[in-house]
Amino acid sequence: xxxxxxxxxxxxxxxxxxxxxxxxxxxxxxxxxxxxxxxxxxxxxxxxxxxxxxxxxxxxxxxxxxxxxxxxxxxxxxxxxxxxxxxxxxxxxxxxxxxxxxxxxxxxxxxxxxxxxxxxxxxxxxxxxxxxxxxxxxxxxxxxxxxxxxxxxxxxxxxxxxxxxxxxxxxxxxxxxxxxxxxxxxxxxxxxxxxxxxxxxxxxxxxxxxxxxxxxxxxxxxxxxxxxxxxxxxxxxxxxxxxxxxxxxxxxxxxxxxxxxxxxxxxxxxxxxxxxxxxxxxx
Length: 283
Description:
Layout: E1 4-10, H1 15-25, E2 27-36, H2 42-48, H3 56-65, E3 70-79, H4 82-90, H5 92-95, E4 100-105, H6 108-116, E5 122-123, H7 137-145, E6 149-153, H8 161-178, E7 183-186, H9 198-204, H10 212-217, H11 221-235, H12 250-253, H13 258-261, E8 272-274, E9 280-282
Parallel strand pairs: 1-2, 2-3, 3-4, 4-5, 5-6, 6-7
Antiparallel strand pairs: 8-9
């Protein structure tokens, strides 16, 4: 069975009700989200690990499906200028406290920096407002190659006609620029009434230009890939492979320094020897 995920549920007074409704609608994994506009505080880190309590109906729905509810922590980084990106780079270790880290760029330059340099998992936009810049395919490709996903949140379309129009326009632009790759669909719902079932969202995504299979990936496979990317960001360490020279083949040994090997670039034993005067002669 497919594991549906909603990787953006804002933390607030209504969070337990929203999470419960999502569980009843068929979602098994939810990321509770905080927004950072200033500095990252210890209180935010602690709040990110606080577990939410589901209501009885949600627990019964999960039990009926034979699933366990999984709660993740997410941090949204609002990028206003280059100072924010420098601060974020300096907080790399602290950001590992969160399962998912997303960047919300406000300019094209900051979008380029997020795609190329920042150690993040998701790039998001204010889909309910008209974007002040174009999303370029070249920038999207850089992010996709790094395993970063792009987010489309749908709840704004249920609140306002203007926001709905902007959402569709922005989402179409994003889908075209990414060529339908690395797209995730989230609710961003602050109230339970703004959530929808996964199959309803998959149908809505057809308006954005997503095929049925890709829309489904935006709720399942791509969300899972985002979680894996977050785990790698938190746990990645460099690995060095060490081999004895005697165990290396001749085709590999030429890459090492000849002085340390006694071999030339063809993998053959070097014929360089010192004569009695200390000069090098070639046999």
